[in-house]
Amino acid sequence: MKAWFASAAAIAALVLGALVLPSSAYQPAKEIGIAVGMPAPAISGVTQTGQPAAFASLRGEKGLVLAFFRSADWCPFCKQQLKDLNTIADDLDARGFKLAALSYDSVDTLAKFATANKIAYTLLSDPHSVVIDAFGVRNLDVAGAKRFDGIPHPAIFIISGEGVVLDKLYEESYKKRPPTDLVLKTVDAATKRAAAAAP
């Protein structure tokens, strides 16, 4: 069975029935990135069209789904994930969430990939891994390696319109990525929890 990894909050929601997936599909893993419930670090970068962008311009009415990926140049698993995410960009938009994906790739690399694959959402270039480091997702196992230095562990953060991390998804292996239906279900569950907790 494929083992997808989510935050403790998502696991709790799963157990409570908010997500219709068997709890046995999740296994404990070392937590990746900042914790759920914490304010998201500043998000900035340059889009595939060469425009500067920050959280305020990236978010939707209810927030932002931010995916960290290794590279749209040399990582086949990332390329497939980016194309898969493209199929739910409109679904997320309908829920009030914009979608963005970030890597250390150059703007030119992101532009070529976006054009070739008709990517309808924002790709962000973070060439010095500033945002990657701020979110705590840099892969230190390959630190110093010429090609890989600065790449993130693949992870998806669901961030509220106020800039709080509502939930996150990540994998034990970079070769495995959360399926798109799980992304949508996690966004729905996170939205319900946030609404229930609102004063």
Describe this structure in words.
This protein is α+β, with helices and mostly antiparallel strands and 199 residues long. The chain has one domain: 3-Layer(aba) Sandwich (Glutaredoxin). It has seven helices and eight strands; from the N terminus they run βαββαβααβαβαββα. It has an eight-stranded mixed β-sheet. The protein is globular and about 50 Å long. The N terminus is likely disordered.
Summarize the structure.
It contains seven helices and eight strands, in the order βαββαβααβαβαββα. By secondary structure, the protein is of the alpha+beta class. The chain is globular.
The percentage helix is 25-40%
CATH 4th-level superfamily: Glutaredoxin
The percent range for strand residues is 15-25%
Mean pLDDT: 87
Most strands sheet: 8 strands, mixed
Under the CATH scheme, the architecture is: 3-Layer(aba) Sandwich
Number of strands: 8
Oligomeric composition of the shown chains: single chain
Note the total helix count.
Answer: 7
How many domain regions? 1
SSE order in H/E notation? EHEEHEHHEHEHEEH
Shape call? globular
Residue ranges: pLDDT <50 for 5 or more in a row? 1-28
The separation of the N and C termini measures 40 Å
Gyration radius, rounded? 16 Å
Structural class: alpha+beta
